[in-house]
Amino acid sequence: MTSDPADLTATDYLNAARDMAAAERHFLAHLLAEEAARRIDDPVIAQSIRARYPDRATQRD
Q: Can you give the pTM of this predicted structure?
């Protein structure tokens, strides 16, 4: 891993999001996935990333 956040890729952020989701840190997973989605040029792929890691604080039960 790099020490400069500007060098991180969408894949780096997605890997971190998966790790945070596995650790049940869902809001952090959401934030990392959101950053990954911002780095993706294809809007369909970006939306699928966002759908996999929703912000649970804004969801209704």
A: 0.84
CA distance 16 to 36: 10
DSSP state of 53: S
Cβ neighbours of residue 50 closer than 8 Å, sequence gap 6 or more: 33, 34, 37
One-letter identity of residue 30: H
Helices (H), 1-61: 10-22, 26-38, 43-52
Residue 60 three-state SS: coil
**DSSP state for residue 39 in the 8-state scheme:** T
What is residue 22's predicted lDDT score, i.e. its pLDDT?
Answer: 96
